[in-house]
Amino acid sequence: MTAFDVDGFYAAWTAGDLPAVVAQLHPDVDWPEPWSGGRVLGRSAVAEHLARQARDVRFSVVPEQVHPGPAVTVHQVVRDADGDLLSDTRVLHGLTVQDGLLRRLDVGEPPP
User: Fold this and answer.
1) Which residues are in the SnoaL-like domain (predicted)?
2) Helix, strand, or coil here: 6?
């Protein structure tokens, strides 16, 4: 496995730098869509999904701890376009990395 820049990925996501986020995605990335329970497949589809999402919500996704796997416990704050708080939680991101790019992202409960 080639190294994946965890901190750079989350910094770009929190900054809303979608081109930098998308540049770190594998062409065949598999991305969660937690509100519908589905998945978004492929770099261009995920880019479109994130762009649509960015019109409605703002994410702050700060890595707190990297676990083997790799997985990352993140502090995730979501606000609507007006800045009103929608959620403030900690989640576990399971990362599958291939050739230094994010191949799959899974979301779950962080370890205690």
Assistant:
1) 6-104
2) helix
Domains of the chain, residue spans: 6-108
Residue spans of the chain under pLDDT 70:
1-2
Provide the CA 33 distance to its chain's centre, in angstroms.
10
- CA nearest 13: which of 58, 68, 71, 70? 58
Q: Which residues contact 101 (CB under 8 A, 6 or more apart)?
A: 4, 24, 25, 26, 27, 29
Predicted structure pTM score: 0.87
The CATH architecture annotation of domain 6-108 reads: Roll (3.10)
The CA radius of gyration of the chain, in Å to the nearest whole number, is: 13
Of 10, 17, 2, nearest to 91 (Cα)?
A: 10
Whole-angstrom distance, CA of residue 27 vs CA of residue 92: 23
Which tokens is 57 given?
Answer: 């919500």
